[in-house]
Amino acid sequence: MNDDQKEMSCAAFQAQLPDLIGSGETAADHPHLRNCELCRALLADLETIAEAARQLFPIVEPPDELWEHIESAIKKETS
Amino acid sequence: MHQSRFPLRPLDSVPEQLGGGMPAPLADSSPPQIPQPGPPVLSSNPVEADALARAQAGDHHAFAQLYSLHKRRIYSLCLRMVGNISEAEDLTQEAFLQLHRKIATFRGDSAFSTWLHRMAINVVLMQLRKKGLSLISLDEAMEPAVEERPGRSFGEPDLTLSGAIDRMALQKAIDELPSGYRLIFVLHDIEGYEHNEIASMLDCSIGNSKSQLHKARLKLRAALRIHPHEEGPR
Question: Which domains are seen in chain B, by residue range?
Answer without folding.
Answer: 46-130 (1.10.1740.10), 140-226 (1.10.10.10)
